[in-house]
Write a structure and sequence with these properties.
This protein is mostly helical. It has 17 helices and no strands.
Length: 363
């Protein structure tokens, strides 16, 4: 039996999200005047789709491999592999917190929830459910859609939760002190994991028409909720519309689904584009997005060995033409780091497996 093909549209979406993410974070290099310029307002709209795309594709991939694992009689091995991958996400998330905050003096900063922590924790919660439903992908997709709608719907109601749990359910500072707070709380952002999982379970059916019908359903659902954003907003107590309103997130997932559909059409109708250099470039970022996240953050903000970072020398100082050149350099350097790491990582894992007496997994 032939191995199921990888669905490249989601790799390309993730790769595009990486490119936009790097631009989003590199905006600090522009002068304050240019950051507030008119063109920045529409860039911010595009930037707002980066996190949904990442989180959505993470849920998609996790559901897809669980169902395929169950179908191939290797569910236990696949679940274990997925759990290890989720652990890697949380380790990298902790390394980023370690780079930005005085973790050794104040361990509380390890609890700060940014996008990687949000993805890792959401996947960790979703994994047992996906494993349990992996033999019934049609049930899984409806269950995942239901959970996603619950998460999005509950977000405005949890906005004012205080104390320890606010670290996970909203972005209010003050859970541990006056500053600590989540950047990407599980409510509403985890909703994209479950939404993506519903698509992943559908894709695992290997029925092209079923996938298109499901994407169409999610698009219509998102567009409908977005259309009624006024009544939906008014149905809740006063809240942060941009961060927590279900209709605002419905708008985002409508755009994400539209991008997935367009890339899927391109993948099916023009398969030769996968060989184009620019698409291969995107694919590298799409299949190594965790590394791309880590390396671009370090290159941009962290003074490696106390010597260099883009922000160290160019923060708040660039005109648009300078910004474009530095952005290209940052993306090229990130790409180079990712390619090197892709070569080093398997060898490092093999060494660690040998060191701890475990056989290295097959490539």
């Amino acid at each position: 039996m032939a191995a199921p093909r990888r669905i490249q549209a989601f790799d390309w979406l993730r790769g595009l999200a990486v490119l936009v993410m790097i631009q989003t974070h590199a905006v600090v290099l522009l002068t304050p005047q240019w950051r507030e310029a008119v063109f920045h307002s529409w860039i911010v709209r595009l930037d707002g789709l980066v996190a949904p795309s990442f989180i959505f594709t993470a849920g998609f991939a996790l559901a897809l491999v669980q169902v395929r694992g169950a179908r191939g009689g290797r569910l236990k091995a696949q679940a274990k592999k997925s759990a290890k991958r989720i652990g890697e996400v949380l380790v990298v998330a902790s390394l980023v917190n370690l780079a930005w905050f005085p973790v050794f003096r104040e361990p509380k900063w390890l609890l700060r929830v940014d996008i990687l922590q949000c993805i890792g924790l959401s996947l960790l919660v979703a994994l047992p459910v996906m494993v349990g439903l992996s033999a019934w992908p049609r049930v899984m997709r409806w269950a995942m859609l239901f959970v996603s709608l619950v998460v999005f719907s509950a977000a405005p109601l949890l906005e004012n939760v205080t104390g320890f749990w606010s670290l996970f359910v909203n972005t209010r500072p003050g859970a541990l002190d006056a500053t600590t707070g989540a950047a990407f709380a599980l409510f509403p952002w985890a909703g994209y994991v479950f939404l993506g999982a519903s698509v992943g379970a559908t894709a695992a059916l290997d029925d092209g028409k079923a996938l298109w019908r499901w994407l169409g359903l999610l698009w219509l659902l998102g567009a409908g909720v977005w259309f009624f954003q006024g009544p939906i907003r008014d149905a809740y107590p006063p809240h942060d519309f941009w961060a927590n309103n279900p209709a605002n997130h419905a708008q985002r997932w409508t755009f994400v689904i539209s991008a997935v559909a367009a890339l899927r059409v391109l993948e099916l109708e023009r398969p030769q584009v996968a060989q184009w250099a620019v698409v291969r470039f995107l694919t590298v970022f799409g299949t190594s997005s965790l590394g791309a996240y880590f390396f671009h953050e370090m290159l941009l903000y962290y003074r490696t060995l106390g010597i260099f970072s883009f922000a160290m020398y160019f923060r708040d100082s660039c005109q648009p033409w300078q910004f474009v050149l530095l952005l290209i350099a940052l993306e090229a350097m990130t790409y180079g780091c990712v390619r090197v790491w892709d070569r080093v990582e398997p060898k490092l894992k093999a060494r660690l497996s040998a060191l701890f007496g475990q056989p290295a997994p097959a490539a």
